[in-house]
Design a protein that fits this description.
five-stranded mixed beta sheet, about 50% strand, CheW-like_dom_sf, 1 helix, Chemotaxis protein CheW, six-stranded mixed beta sheet, 11 strands
């Protein structure tokens, strides 16, 4: 039986999941250097052991209200194709395994979010987990379509 291993995190009352194979690490939020003329959802860049990594505010990317950082706020450092970037989240909740049968395609009306960011909805008992399509989170620049 096929299953996925996911890192789950929260933004407000919503819970999201990303493929654990794309997660490099989860870190506390260091100082973030703003970048002039960057997209609104790019908070800036951080220095992670000598590598400069852009950080995206998922709240801004998804049109949610910004909130103050808390002790639970984290940056999840991801690798998508050849790009490494961080996503700022309210809290990382857990690592879990989800059976493929428990994943449904995104609903036609996607909760006020851009459907391109969502690859499915996972069901865990009564909980619903929004599974993110990381290829679109950064914007067009990571979208290398490969013709098969």
């Amino acid at each position: 039986m096929a299953e996925e291993q996911l890192v789950t995190f929260s933004l407000g009352s919503e819970e999201f999941g990303v493929d654990i194979m794309r997660v490099q690490e989860i870190i506390r939020i260091p100082p973030i250097t703003r970048v002039p003329k960057a997209s609104e959802y790019v908070e800036g860049v951080i220095n992670l052991r000598g590598n400069v990594i852009p950080v995206i505010s998922l709240r801004t990317r998804f049109g949610m209200t910004r909130v103050e950082e808390t002790d639970l706020s984290r940056i999840i450092v991801l690798q998508v194709q050849t790009k490494v970037f961080g996503i700022r989240v309210d809290a990382v909740t857990e690592v879990l395994r989800l059976e493929s049968e428990a994943i449904e395609p995104p609903p036609p009306i996607t909760l006020g979010m851009d459907a391109q960011f969502i690859r499915g909805v996972g069901k865990i008992g009564e909980r619903l987990l929004i599974l993110l399509d990381l290829d679109h989170i950064m914007g067009g620049e990571t979208n290398h379509d490969v013709c098969a």
